[in-house]
Amino acid sequence: GAVVSQHPSRVICKSGTSVKIECRSLDFQATTMFWYRQFPKQSLMLMATSNEGSKATYEQGVEKDKFLINHASLTLSTLTVTSAHPEDSSFYICSASLPGISYEQYFGPGTRLTVT
Amino acid sequence: AQSVTQLDSQVPVFEEAPVELRCNYSSSVSVYLFWYVQYPNQGLQLLLKYLSGSTLVKGINGFEAEFNKSQTSFHLRKPSVHISDTAEYFCAVITRGGTALIFGKGTTLSVSS
After folding, report:
1. Which of A46, A85, B51, B64 has the largest CB neighbor count within 10 A?
2. CB–CB of A107 and B44 under 8 A?
C-alpha cells in the first residue's frame, strides 16, 4: 500500500514553455503532498507543501509564480513549471503523507525535466 | 532549526563486507529519524524509521540502525552487503508534530566484487 505515482517520468521542453507534472496517491487519500527538487549528486530540497483545497506553502527562495502547485483533490497534486529555463532542469520528486501521520512520507518515482 | 549531517559522501566496500553509513543530527526538540535509499533515476524508498521505543530498528534488505540520543546519531548498518545495495542513501529527520523532512546530503554506497 501507500503507492505514489508521478507522470511523466521524463520530459523535455523548450525554453519559455510550461510543463506540468502530476503526482498521484494511488491507494490512499493524501491530505498533504510535498514537492522536492534534486540536483545531480545532491540531496532533496523541499520546494513546497500542499494541502488539499488550500494554497501551497512555499519554502524560502522558491518562486511561487514560477512553480505553480495545485492540490485539487485528495489524490492529485500538480506542479507546473512556467516559462521554463535551462536552469530549471532537475529531478522533481513528490511525496504524500497519510492523513494524521504527517511525519511518514511516501515518495513518487520522480520526474526528470530537461529544458533545452 | 534541525539539520542532518551525513559524514561520508562516498563509501566503497567489497561484496559481503559489513558497512556503516553515519548520520548525525541536531535539533532542540524531539525528532523522528529515517533512512531512505535511492536507486539511479528513481524516487526514495523507506529503509527504516525510528519513532520511539527500542533504539535498534530493523528495516528492509537486512539494514538496521541505532538511535543514540546522547550522540545525536542514527547510523545505518548492514553486516554483509550485496552488489545490489549500490545506491544513494539519505538520512532524514522531522520534528514531532512537524511536516517538513530535512535530508542529509546523502552517502553513495558502492559495492564491488
Report:
1. A46
2. yes
